[in-house]
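stuck on this one:
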Amino acid sequence: MEFLQHLKPYEIAGILFAIAFIAHFALKLLLKKLTLHASKTKNQLDDYLIKSISAPLKVLVWFGWIYFSINIFKEDITSLKKVVGYIDITPIFIITWGVLRAISNTEAYLLSRNANINKDSIRMISRLVKLLLIVSIALGIAQHFGFSISSLLTFGGVGGVVMGFAAKDMLSNVFGGLLLQMDRPFSVGDWIRSKEFEGTVEKIGWRMTRIRTFSKNPVYIPNSIFASIPIETPSRMTNRRINEVIGIRYNDIAQMPIIVTEVETMLRAHKEIDQSQPLRVFFNYFNASSLDFNIYAFTKTVNKNEYQQIKQKILLSVADIIAEHGAEIAYPTQTLHIQK
């Protein structure tokens, strides 16, 4: 210390710069070794966390040099005394920056995994934690500079009521977004539909949800809407339904029992039909130009293309069964009786 007392301020600042440079270089090597070691582990979370803190730690080293250098010169430059009082809280900002980076990278790590987790909930929780952290730090800094926290909270409460009335729609959309994350009636990538819209969910935001329709147009829907309308999520179906009405001629009424029986037998033997679900084949209607029977069954697959192929084969098989018994599929006809 006696050695430093004989040095001039700019010489001490130079020594501090050299120390900061060496510390920066040593920190860089340490982080490089930690990154190399972390890359060999199975869990990739440590890679994301090391990446989060590397930049803030380097900034913290150089802030130390700036802070101590200003303290050296403040005796000679009186205006620097006020600066020291303000930059005392800079480490809080740097640490907060590091924590926010850690939260963001943890979110990125969880989203990059193929685990069965709800990615929308992870994004929402991450945003809420960041918001709470920033608000807490802001209140702490306000108290540090002499502001009354109770007054700020009281003012915030009154202001919140005023803002609540002024931004009622916006708040209802925000809370609607929170409810979507809690109830999870659908997620990003789901196919949803209602009377007003139908499409694939691309993004669930704070205020609105973006849906891509099947005509590839984006539709932006306020989150509050979902609380007041029924939403269907076809992408979460467990089976696809076959529900067809087939008519034969009135002249073929004698063949109806055997046709219905063979169609049901064919469906019960079909490997792509889910036998645990309802399966019905019944003659049920005397139509104007046909005798109608109903086919009701569920496929095992939910894939649209596979479903269409299965349904196509079943309908062709039904046509073959009708033809085998000398019957014909009916079409609209009129019979004219001429009386002599």
